[in-house]
Amino acid sequence: MKLSKEALSLWGKKSNQDGDERWLPLVAHLADTMNVGHWLYNSWLSEGQRSMLTTRICDAEMSKLVSFLCYIHDLGKATPAFQTKESYNHDHQLDEELIHRLVSHSFKKLNDLSLPSRSKSPHARAGEAILERAGLNETIAAIVGGHHGKPQNGDQEEQIDVFTSNYYQADNDEEIQQPWKDVQRELIDYGLELAGYEDISEVPPVNQPEAVILEGLLIMADWLASSTCLNNDPDKPMFNLIGLDQSFDDLDMKARYQNAISTWAINDAWIPEEVANVDDYYEQHFSFKPRQIQAAMEEHVKEAVDPGLVIIEAEMGIGKTEIALTAAEQLAYATGRTGVYIGLPTQATTNAMFDRVNSWLTKIAGIEGIDPDIKLLHGKAEWNSRYTDLPRAEDIEAEELDAGTVTVNSWFSGKKSILADFAVGTIDNLLLMGLKQKHLFLRHLGFSNKVVIIDEVHAYDMYMQSYLSKALKWLGAYHVPVVILSATLPKEKRNSLIQSYFEGKYDCEDELQADEGWESNQAYPLLSILDGQKLHQYDNFGPKVEPRELQVSYINDEPTEVLAKVNDKIKDGGIAGIIVNTVKRTQKFAGLVGQDCQCLVLHSAFLATDRSRLEKELQSLIGKKGKRPDKLIVIGTQVLEQSLDIDFDVMFTDIAPIDLLLQRAGRLHRHKISRPKGLEKRQLYVMKPDMDDYGPANEAVYEKYYLQKTEHFLPQRIQLPNDISRLVQLVYDEDTDDQVENLDEARDKLNVDRKREESKAESFQINDPVYPDEDDDLEDKEWVEDLTIHRWLNRDKGNLDDNQASAAVRDIRESIEVILLKEISGEYYLMNGDKVSEKEENEIAQELIRLPNAVTPNIEQAINILEENTARAFPDWQGSPWLKGSLAVMLDEHAKGSFNGYKLRYSTDTGLSYEKEVDN
């Protein structure tokens, strides 16, 4: 089919850079996007993603559909509303030149057009409207309407009747309208021919999960086809615009897209292999032989035919991470995935896991001779030197890159980060699958290609569990294999995780097939595998390990009394851990430790640089193969209970729910080393007030219901690991409530809080995946509207930065991060004494700390004050890529100051403390 001069005169992109006026014919951009989309579908999507997309539609037909969708996505630009838009930099000469061409090619009087309602028909919406009127099924048209990140509110065909001149230049003049109708029809027919269709009615409808992935793929293809060069590097051209003296006929479309793809595709895809021999795999990838339980669990994972969800419940320190990474390769092989995501509760645990995953991936890269890419996904990733020291893929010529090198690909940044094959990040990245947010389709596309590993799943509260449930439903819809790890998982949570994944993968009418009693299974260790619709549970992994006794005692939580006991326990040497529930309590304890004993404090209220230093110091002292001092007291908050491989001789902990107490106890006698005199046995001291309640601080952190039940069921002697599951189930099972006195008030409060948290979480959550009862429903006007992606992101949270997004899925009040400095005689210094004027901008940017919420009750007011102070002291920061938008708090030479009615003090040993100023 030969295109008319009218079709060839439409512009798709235009620009003026330093006087160089350039344009790109609309049909060229449509063809570019089609070529990219076709390549992405056939060469970038994994076998698993294509398998999910072709459950109902054969591969050849889906390939045609992707080509047509990517081609037709910008049809809405073939309208007078778009063609008369001004260029971004208001180059009137360029605008007039392109309109003159259109006027000379049948679009008469276009240069006189004035459209008062132009904004009512943005090109994505206009494209959907034109295609619906042309007869395209609504499920595909809705994808066109949403390709800028947010779908429309419903059927758009009436747009043309209401805002006719936006589409045809005139409301009633048929002579003026006809060229627009003709060119729109011509572009549709051209796209159908390129894709291999004879009529628009042949384009098949898709269900909602398929539409979400196709939308993500279209957005990605459009972004790539809109990139004139790679990462803004003009030496790496991709889809350049052309001079005004050139036309579509001057372009070699095939060579153009091939060159662009070869420029962009700089990493190798992982081709996972079957784990044929578990012993060999562990030797090659971890340099040790698997434990009996590790080998047994891996063999069960290998037996799954249609693996979906895998839940591993086993005690702390048995090597669940290695089980999960090995299972990830087996599951990727079985399901056709080429990526892995590991989600963890905190930045500290994520950093620790990144090193282990990077080591594993480096082994894979070396064995397979590939160059994979990896991302560290959390707010402080750019300050993790082990991450930033990795080579940048785009900075290395292919011939310079040794086979087997793990790299960072800078194209996968911002909203595109999750598209990288391998990623280690905070759990927020996964939970955000459930949050209504623009460009959510890209996040779903990225996760649909991965084996997802979720560590420390017991650590997530009711609000986060709601988002996790939503994410699991959608992962199930994409048939994504998920591995969940926990040492202390209540059976209700386990059952909920299984049910969520199952509901997402299968229609509601399908029933889970499982052995009788699966919902109340208290075996430990326990491996649960959802294989298709059948749930298998395994608890026999060979001879049981010799149980180890944990002695438990209660002690009054008054710090002076506790420290007296601590000093008595380590009088002959030893490492004592004190885990408390609040930062303020940590600092109170630290202030009472005598000078005669080394003390190390760790919590969230440290500068990022100090916290990193303290974590490394802690690992070097009491980590595996650490150089243990004779005596040491470590005081910290919950950060000590999560994933840090450290070892205490004796432990003191504030009361907490039973699963968290057991997690904390997992840092007791963790390694096989000799113990000081009197500390040969595992001893856990639980601190609580000598009163009926647990104090406002403890009850603000944890529900009183769980604290009461923990106190009731916690015995003086615990057999590890045998008692772990039994104790966790006793506390979390509502059937045991009648065994605990005076529980009614706490239970009522829990139920109220739970309903409030679930309701709050659902406010901005996407809906569950929707499936048609019959495939014919996708073409039935009565039902199809409920099956498209229309309104999928209605009432969304808008454009959130990383901190705001994290707060949205964690139910925490938004807080303010500031750069903490000292001001001495008009000069500014970092807290370590270095002059700000002598430091690199990226080093200054690392001196971040989060202000306590109590200090900033009115966050907008606090930000305004900080912005004024920062602009006055550091006007140059706004021009810095590292410091733009940063806020600073200046303390005096003694690291003391005041802000917003609070006295602030910073110590490199105890962190940021605050107290309310008292009026004189």
In short:
This protein is of the alpha/beta class and about 900 residues long. Helices cover about 40% and strands about 15% of the residues. The termini are far apart.
Oligomer: single chain
Q: Note the gap between the termini.
A: 87 Å
**Helix content percent band:** 25-40%
User: Largest sheet, if any?
Assistant: 9 strands, mixed
Tally the helices: what do you get? 33
Radius of gyration: 30 Å
Low-confidence stretches: none
Inertia-based shape: globular
Lateral arrangement of strands in the main beta sheet? 8-9-7-10-11-6-13-14-12
Overall number of strands: 28
Going by helix content, strand content and strand pairing, the class is alpha/beta
Mean pLDDT: 92
Please indicate the percent range of residues in DSSP E strands (runs of 2 or more). Answer: 15-25%
